[in-house]
Amino acid sequence: MEGKSSEDADEALETYLEFTPQWVNFKAPLMITAVNRIQNEVLRRYDRKPGEYNVFCSQLESMFMSPVIVALEEYGVPIQLGKRLVPMLGSPETLDEALTALAKRQVQEIKGVSNFERELIRPLCKDEVPDGS
After folding, report:
1. Same domain assignment for residues 71 and 132
2. Across all residues in the chain, what is the average pLDDT?
3. pLDDT for residue 25
4. CA-angle at 80, arms to 15 and 57, nearest 5°
5. Both 34 and 3 in a single domain?
6. pLDDT per residue over 9-34, tens digit each?
């Protein structure tokens, strides 16, 4: 029996990596929201109580994590690092709060991260962020 080629493995990995951001974060919540609106309209016409899927869609968009962790990914902070970093920042409730907390810290003050991870967050820390003066 012959194994898969490296091209097949690369394609499978690329497909997987495209699936999560496209489907889980965007397409599935969009489709569920559409179904939610339809069932809401139809069931109300027949005096039935419709389901409520908005909270589920919101959680799905953020992959059942803090939206702050997901938003930090857009700033180059991988999800795994964001999960460890957010509690260190005082569990900010918004992206702005998280970015402000990072901008107040020197990158070396952040413990429990590797040198590679430090380099990922360095642009968001006091070392790199202009203080506005």
Report:
1. yes
2. 87
3. 78
4. 65
5. yes
6. 888 878 777 777 778 778 889 999 99
